[in-house]
Amino acid sequence: MRLLVNLWLLMLSCSAINCNLVNVPDQCPLPSTIPALGCQTIYLYSQLLQVEIAILALCKAIRLVISHEGNTEGSSRFLVFLSNEFHSEAVERLLSSEKFINAIYKAVESIPEGQVCGCIRQITEDISESLRWMKDFCPLVDGKKLQNFNLQGELLGRGLSRLYCLVLGSVIITNSNRNLLGVAVNELMALVRPYLSILVGQQPDTICKFFSSVIGETVDQVVRKGKVLKKFGRSSQWVLVFFFQLFVSCQSLYRQASLRPPDLPKMSAEVEDYTTYSASELMERIDKIDFGYFSWIVQPSSSLLVVMQFISDIYLKLGSDDSSPLIYIFQSMALRRLVYLNKQIKLFKYLKKKHYLQKKSYRSQIKTLKEEAADLTNFILEYLSCVYQSPIFVSDYVTCEDVVSVVTQSIQDHIKERCNQWDWDLGVYAANKKSLPTLIWSKLCKNVDIWSNHASKKQLKTFFSHLLHAYLHSVTSSFQEPGVQEIDKCKLLKTITLSQISSELLNDSLFYEQKFAHRSLASMFCLALEKLVLPLFSNIPCTDVNLQSLPNWPEFLSF
């Protein structure tokens, strides 16, 4: 293991050299081959049926790239003269490689079903080690140590989290391993539950108590919202991303493990996620279930909306720096919650018809669920403002560079096809000020059937008008939109535009089967076409062109 850790450290050090010499001509070509070497390492250990060893060694190497004063383990890092920031950037470069991520995905997918549970338990042990790493070297003092804390938080949420969630989202679940896998996931949740229970529990001074548990030190419990960022740093948002991503990944994996054929017994667990229940089980336990989003963490718990708004008040409204990762993961969690709310609303509507005597009680439940769904939809659409401010919507003179946002090309679509769930989403790691509008627009367009039923008419009208605007721009624009391009010789990035996303949605025949679409879109589409066609008649002497008037068919057919 130690030799393998040193190999990963050597790769990261070579990549850090390239990051340090980014503006120097005639750079050494070695760093550009690092992802390929990493792929070969993963393939080799996959053939030996020990891919988890290679991944855990990489996790340990990531923890060692930050050098701390008085930390003897930090001396294991090669090229200690390079700063921690360059090594952190090297980690990001490696994990942004399409080929490298794809190699890990395929290797984990090929793990024999009998070894999957052991792999999850090893990941759990490494997560425990990462949390101890945060406690051992995170004293909150001014200067260099606070800077190291910010780097550690970023490595935890941007690096280690990506590897952990990739493994959790790639393992294969079968009838023979699903029960043991469910137990292993519950053990992982038992590890992170004490931290998340503070964050989502109904108690004061939540954020300070949460970070106190993460760093292992008692901090001032009376910290105003405006001083939280000054005390913990902007990169502390990656600590939140780490725990939220783990929660979502565990929830998805546990749900898949619980979806079993009828002849198989139900797995036993002290705390179960209600989303794993079948329809019959929900009806049997309807009066005993806590339908809260975080009910798997602690009961009672704050609602998802309350947690998101509280964190938003600190990181998004009071801070001026980039909080795109938090915005993106909030969008993802809110959409997941809407999926469950839609199912619950349908369930209660069915029960209301079946049990007439309890009709009033079920009507009250439906009203509560619809109100939560409407509030979550308002929260989601609130961040469309950054999309609507894109140059494509505010200016008639838009260049290709104005429209293009670069997002990491991933294999998550293949995973979604296999699982039909949001098990693993790389968007949070690619989110920044430049790519966020495209990422949000893409997610909302792909899931328009989930949130549209809870949006107001005004919100739908605004969304449809911008959807058509972006689509028509792609039809009338003179430039050719690019596809996949190579960036800095290390990774392939997929360029996608708002126009391409809008065109894909409008070309989807299933989109027009939605009630909200054929109710509102037809008239708006006609108005947009009229606006587009009218300039064609500008040189015609006749000034009373009315495209809405009906033609005189007898006169027209007589010619």
Give a structural overview.
By secondary structure, the chain is an all-alpha fold. The chain is built from 26 helices and three strands. It has helices spanning 2-20, 34-47, 51-64, 84-95, 98-109, 116-136, 144-170, 178-200, 206-215, 225-232, 237-258, 279-284, 304-315, 324-354, 359-382, 385-388, 391-394, 400-403, 412-419, 427-430, 436-446, 448-451, 457-476, 498-506, 515-533, 553-557, and strands at 404-408, 484-487, 491-497. A hairpin with a 3-residue loop joins strand 2 (484-487) and strand 3 (491-497). It is globular and about 90 Å long. The protein starts with a helix and ends with a helix. Residues 69-75, 261-265, 267-271, 406-424 and 478-493 have low confidence and may be disordered.
Label this structure with key terms.
559 residues, mainly alpha
